[in-house]
Amino acid sequence: MLRNLTTTISALIDDDCRVFYTGMASGFDIIAAETVLKFKEKQSDIKLIAVVPFEEQEKSYSNEWKTRYEQVLNRCDEVNVLSKEYHAGCYQNRNKFMVDSSDYVVTWYDGKQGGTRNTLNYAQKKKRYIVNVNTEYFKEFNNSQFKMDI
What we know:
Elements: H1 2-14, E1 19-22, H2 28-42, E2 47-52, H3 63-75, E3 78-81, H4 90-100, E4 104-107, H5 115-125, E5 129-132
Parallel strand pairs: 1-2, 2-3, 4-5
């Protein structure tokens, strides 16, 4: 996954993308943000913006993910906290915010029902380019308009 993610982010930067968003979820979101931050070390014009659905989102994370969350958050150029507390729909609000602010959606999608699938359906409706770095699952949400060697 990491090699495909690194290649994808590199290709987006080569395509003049300079602003990246992260939803700060444990797992793929934080790993993708850490990858962007590695590129940012070499190219200062790259921006990373965190979109946090509610304050203390990380409270239920393991200690390792809490640490990584804080490290990423401290290095972001901007942090948008969308709600003071958790409420039904807050993750969907975060995802829509990021899709509405982006041209590309980079994801690790495995075909399962849930928030990622809903977000990708929304991104398709908004005509965003979708790049799924999960090479095991290329059935849906691979945007043929955006081809990349990964």
